[in-house]
């Protein structure tokens, strides 16, 4: 109804306006919209409604069209995604093509600019060529001077300056550039002088940095030359070469291979030998010397060179604080010194007057004193024999190298003798540890042998000969323990190690023989002897181990003569030579054996004391048990088993040990009776004690160790026997009457001993006096005891007064 009131031309007008808005440009929309507001009052509202309806229609059409074309849109997006990779590749190719075009363009631009510049230069040259025709020879000569300056041909530059001043400058002296050149020549001379001095400083700094390389090369060449010489001597069967390697160290077949290889290597390296000129460019020195000579200032140059080289010598001779820790520290020290003096020797021979022989000798003597002091100080810190040996080898190569350049090196070889003593000390310390390890690992029992191969393997390492043992069937046992062949092998290894230091010392075979024997004597008398004595004193070493140690020392003592033969084979010096030093192994092993024997006696006595401490006598018993005490029987059984082990010992050792044990047992039993803490002893206790002594005597008479004559062993208990017999038979009248007579039955009974024991029995009698007063025999016995006690006291007092 509302729309019915509209004018008949309103709706078509609005549609026209909408069509015009849709079909015209944005710039023309303004007037069209203005016509909406110019119409009827409600035209705007109606137009907006019409516009909304139109928009809705368009939205529906768009939606229909989108629905219609949606699948096509999705397919298009999919195609685009597929094309994306090819598009990226195309982009990269386009970018790369663009970069190449740009690079090509730059080169074209550069070439174009070069062409332009060349054309300009060509034009300029053409312009000035006529003007320079007159000055061209001067300019060429001056250009030559500049070229010589730029190429550091300063000596030639000085000669060119002389030509310019004498020949060319007078021709063009009217030109201003010629005056500038003339004024510039003194400055150029000063520049040459400064530059040459700067080059000399650079040269000095360079050889200071590379002196170790120079020295290393020189030392290597000296070592190769020495190896070649020694190899040649060995090929010609020179005696010195034979004496340094013997037996199984380098077999003859291997010697031939080594010699052949050495000669082949020498031939291969013959063309590769480098000299100091190959390693160092000496042209700065020569050039500087010539320049200063031309300039008339040669003395200044010589003084400067010598001063700087002396400073460098002091720096080279200053060692690093940790040089003694590794062989590389010593090698670096030696190579720097060798490099320094190789350079000086070269300068001495290729220049005239820059350095003299007197100068180099003075410099070497100063350096040698410093070197010896440094080596003496730093080598004292070396505790590793391998490091000391490497140091010795370095010193020998160092000395041989410089000796080849004419420097005296006798003081260095004298220093080597000091270092040799230190090397021996380090070897002794090292072998002390080796010996200790061998003793710790030994089981101290005879070596069991189960086969002929095993037996041959052992006797090939240790010189053992026993015809009786060889006849025995396998399995069998060698008398020594495992430590014996190991000790013998290590002594030989020590000799080899000591021999290594003697090589290349330019000493005679007699001196080397003396060195080896003295160092071996030190090993035996100090190191091995000390290890043996320390081993013997160790608490865990028992009697069985001590017996085995004595056996071991006996076999080692017998092997000493083979060690002397071993040294003789090395040096070819006969043992019958007057000044040949003998090995002190006999005394060393005898001392160790005596110490072991003494320790056996001590430990055996200690074991006896342990058994005696188990004694538990009832000193107040009235009657004896009728059998010996248990502790004593155990002790006797122990002694029997121990003395069976002693059968492997030398006869006198076993007899001494047996006699010492019996005497100690007798003394211990006597001390037990006379103990001050023991106050009372009954006759029953004396009788029981007598049974124990009888067992001791039976043991002594059973000859536990063969070799005793008669009743020698029983005499160890004679004091106890006479004392106990005196108390058992109560024969005091005979004792007192015969006292002091050589034929006395109780000659071994001391009055003090008898008095002490009798007083202990007297106290027991007094204790039992209540019962004894009813028995007449006991009363008489008590009176007799008191009478004897008085007589003994009188005898003792008389002896004291007489004394």
From TrEMBL:
Location of the Exocyst complex subunit EXOC6/Sec15 C-terminal domain: 412-760
UniProt organism field: Odocoileus virginianus
Keyword Transmembrane included in the entry's annotation: no
Protein name according to UniProt: Exocyst complex component
Segments forming domain Exocyst complex component EXOC6/Sec15 N-terminal: 50-219
Any Pfam family matching the protein: Sec15_C
InterPro entries assigned: EXOC6/Sec15, EXOC6/Sec15_C, EXOC6/Sec15_C_dom1, EXOC6_Sec15_N, EXOC6PINT-1/Sec15/Tip20_C_dom2
Keyword Transport: yes
Protein's job: Component of the exocyst complex involved in the docking of exocytic vesicles with fusion sites on the plasma membrane.
Family listed: Belongs to the SEC15 family.
UniProt KW keywords: Exocytosis, Transport
């Amino acid at each position: 109804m509302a729309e019915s009131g509209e004018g008949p031309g309103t709706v078509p007008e609005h549609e026209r306006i909408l069509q015009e808005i849709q079909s015209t440009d944005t710039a023309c929309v303004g007037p069209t919209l203005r016509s909406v507001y110019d119409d009827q009052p409600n035209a705007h509202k109606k137009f907006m409604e019409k516009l909304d309806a139109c928009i809705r229609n368009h939205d529906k059409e768009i939606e229909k069209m989108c629905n219609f074309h949606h699948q096509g849109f999705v397919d298009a997006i999919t195609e685009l995604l597929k094309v994306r990779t090819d598009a990226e590749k195309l982009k990269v190719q386009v970018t790369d093509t663009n970069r190449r075009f740009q690079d090509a363009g730059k080169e074209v631009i550069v070439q174009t600019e070069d062409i332009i510049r060349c054309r300009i230069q060509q034009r300029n040259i053409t312009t000035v060529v006529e003007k320079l025709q007159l000055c061209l020879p001067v300019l060429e000569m001056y250009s030559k001077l500049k070229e010589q300056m730029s190429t550091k041909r300063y000596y030639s530059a000085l000669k060119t300056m002389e030509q310019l001043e004498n020949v060319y400058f007078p021709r063009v002296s009217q030109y201003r550039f010629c005056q500038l050149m003339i004024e510039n020549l003194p400055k150029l001379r000063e520049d040459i002088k400064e530059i040459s001095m700067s080059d000399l400083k650079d040269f000095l700094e360079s050889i200071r940095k590379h002196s170790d390389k120079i020295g290393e090369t020189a030392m290597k060449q000296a070592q190769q030359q020495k190896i070649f010489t020694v190899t040649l001597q060995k090929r010609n069967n020179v005696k010195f070469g034979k004496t340094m390697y013997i037996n199984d160290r380098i077999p003859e077949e291997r010697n031939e291979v080594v010699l052949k290889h050495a000669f082949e290597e020498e031939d291969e390296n013959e063309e590769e030998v480098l000299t100091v000129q190959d390693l160092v460019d000496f042209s700065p020195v020569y050039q500087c010397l010539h320049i200063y000579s031309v300039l008339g200032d040669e003395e200044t140059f010589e003084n400067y060179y010598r001063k700087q080289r002396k400073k460098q010598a002091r720096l080279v001779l200053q060692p690093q604080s940790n040089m003694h820790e590794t062989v590389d520290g010593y090698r670096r020290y030696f190579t720097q010194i060798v490099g320094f003096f190789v350079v000086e020797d070269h300068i001495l021979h290729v220049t005239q007057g820059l350095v003299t022989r007197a100068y180099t000798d003075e410099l070497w003597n100063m350096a040698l004193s410093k070197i010896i002091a440094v080596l003496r100080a730093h080598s004292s810190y070396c505790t590793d024999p391998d490091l000391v040996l490497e140091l010795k080898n370095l010193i020998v190569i160092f000395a041989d190298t410089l000796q080849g350049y004419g420097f005296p090196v006798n003081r260095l070889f004298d220093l080597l003798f000091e270092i040799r003593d230190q090397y021996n000390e380090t070897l002794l310390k090292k072998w002390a540890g080796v010996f200790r390890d061998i003793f710790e690992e030994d089981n101290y029992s005879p070596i069991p042998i189960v086969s002929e191969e095993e037996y041959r393997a052992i006797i090939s390492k240790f010189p053992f000969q026993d015809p009786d043992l060889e006849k025995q069937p396998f399995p069998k046992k060698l008398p020594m323990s495992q430590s014996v062949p190991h000790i013998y092998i290590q002594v030989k290894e020590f000799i080899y190690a000591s021999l290594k230091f003697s090589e290349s010392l330019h000493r005679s075979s007699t001196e080397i023989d003396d060195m080896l024997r003295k160092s071996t004597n030190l090993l035996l008398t100090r190191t091995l002897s000390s290890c043996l004595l320390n081993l013997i004193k160790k608490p865990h070493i028992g009697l069985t181990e001590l017996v085995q140690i004595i056996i071991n020392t006996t076999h080692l003592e017998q092997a000493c003569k083979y060690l002397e033969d071993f040294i003789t084979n090395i040096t070819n010096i006969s043992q019958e030579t007057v000044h040949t030093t003998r090995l002190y192994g006999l005394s060393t092993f005898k001392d160790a054996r005596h110490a072991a024997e003494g320790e056996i006696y001590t430990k055996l006595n200690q074991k006896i004391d342990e058994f005696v401490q188990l004694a538990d006598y009832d000193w107040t018993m009235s009657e004896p048990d009728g059998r010996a005490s248990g502790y004593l029987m155990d002790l006797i059984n122990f002694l029997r088993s121990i003395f069976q082990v002693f059968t492997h010992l030398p006869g006198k050792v076993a007899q001494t040990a047996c006699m010492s044990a019996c005497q100690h047992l007798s003394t211990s039993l006597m001390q037990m009776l006379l103990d001050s803490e023991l106050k009372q002893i009954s006759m029953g206790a004396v009788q029981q004690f007598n049974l124990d002594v009888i067992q001791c005597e039976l043991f002594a008479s059973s000859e536990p160790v063969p070799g005793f004559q008669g009743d020698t062993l029983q005499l160890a208990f004679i004091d106890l026997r006479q004392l106990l017999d005196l108390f058992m038979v109560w024969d005091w009248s005979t004792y007192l009457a015969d006292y002091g007579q050589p034929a006395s039955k109780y000659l071994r009974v001391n009055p003090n001993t008898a008095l002490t024991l009798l007083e202990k029995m007297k106290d027991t009698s007094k204790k039992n006096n209540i019962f004894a007063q009813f028995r007449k025999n006991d009363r008489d016995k008590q009176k007799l005891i008191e009478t004897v006690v008085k007589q003994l006291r009188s005898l003792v007092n008389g002896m004291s007064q007489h004394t």
